[in-house]
Design goal:
Helices cover 10% and strands 34% of the residues. By secondary structure, the chain is mainly beta. It has a six-stranded antiparallel beta sheet, with helices on one face. β4 and β5 form a beta hairpin.
Length: 206
Amino acid sequence: MAARDDTKQNALSRYEKRSPDLALLEYSHCEVPAGCGGAVLRWVDPRAEVPLLLHLDATAPCAVRLDGAPIVSSRVSLAPGPHVLAFLLARAESGEAALLFAASPDSAAKVSGDDRRIREAAERAAFRSEPEPAWRTSTVEPDGDAWTHEGFDDAAWSPAEAIALPDAPKASWIRRELLEHGVRAIGLRGARGPLWIRRRFVVVAP
């Protein structure tokens, strides 16, 4: 008697999707203690976008733009190539205007299967605030919004400097977390703001 294949034909594996060119990202979280809040699945081309999670804290109100556009979410997907993050720190109430920032692989984006292309690309693109020449600062207001875009000449701007933060027992959790992971507070010594800060970086395709 021939083996029946009913169970095989009706198995859920029939609906499993695979692609040699795309990767499946899963974003999920629990919205209530009693159960799961659901999940969002996205097929992405790892050669076209890399997911990063942005972490930010500052000692003054801070406006942030990515490639000239306001950032509306801490989760971003970036195409391979050069990008610019631009920060405008208002005047600090006390002390110096300082920025703490990190761009890291988005751990909430679970990659299906054993596809490491997106993880590796995100790890290569990760960076954090440090007192180094890649971080450019100015206390002089630039003309227009060209400073928020690639191609702006910031050679006359000053390299970011390390800023010592005062002891703050009630510091925000994000500041504590950033400091625990080695993120440095940067700015210009003696500058309370406004302060303009630029950081150019490159996302490399897998």
